[in-house]
Amino acid sequence: MEPKAKLYYDINEVAELLKVEAPTLRFWEKKFPQLDPKRDARNRRRYTERDIEIIKKIMHQREKQGRTIKGTREQLRRKEESELMIQRLMRVRKFLVELKDNL
């Protein structure tokens, strides 16, 4: 199954794709605020590419890095904060370059 082929995946497709059990995905939704799949009209979970990437990060932290759930949650939170800071700094840099060019 190619992850780029669809906009949304149901829980069983994601579980099969990532070789993890569906109850594990539901459990992780409770433990990781970053993982928040959309729900359709029938209240079924609809995972996006972003959700799948978050699950892959969780799996990597848990399996390869040996982190606890708490440690994994903290690591993901720090990474999100770092990415936001980088975006802010890039905007400031762009503003300063434009300001310099206008002088």
Summarize the structure.
Keywords: DNA-binding. The protein has 103 residues and is mainly alpha-helical. The chain is built from 4 helices and 2 strands.
Note down, in words, how this protein is organized.
It is a single chain. This protein has 103 residues and is mainly α. Helix content is 66%, strand content 4%. The chain has 4 helices and 2 strands, in the order ααββαα. It has helices at 11-18, 22-31, 49-64, 69-102; strands spanning 38-39, 45-46. The chain has a two-stranded antiparallel sheet with strand order 1-2. Strand 1 (38-39) and strand 2 (45-46) form a beta hairpin. Helix 3 crosses helix 4. It is elongated, with a radius of gyration of 18 Å. The mean pLDDT is 90.
pLDDT averaged residue by residue = 90
Low-confidence stretches: none
Give the overall form: elongated
Strand content: under 5%
Strand order of the largest sheet: 1-2
Query: End-to-end distance, in Å?
Result: 54 Å
Strand runs, count: 2
How many helices? The count is: 4
- What's the helical proportion of residues? 55-70%
Helix/strand order: HHEEHH
Structural class: mainly alpha
Largest sheet: 2 strands, antiparallel
CA-based gyration radius: 18 Å
Show the helix and strand layout:
Blueprint: H1 11-18, H2 22-31, E1 38-39, E2 45-46, H3 49-64, H4 69-102
Antiparallel strand pairs: 1-2
Helix pairs in contact: 3-4
List keywords for this structure.
two-stranded antiparallel ribbon; 103 residues; MerR-type_HTH_dom; MerR_fam; DNA-bd_dom_put_sf; HTH merR-type domain-containing protein; mainly alpha
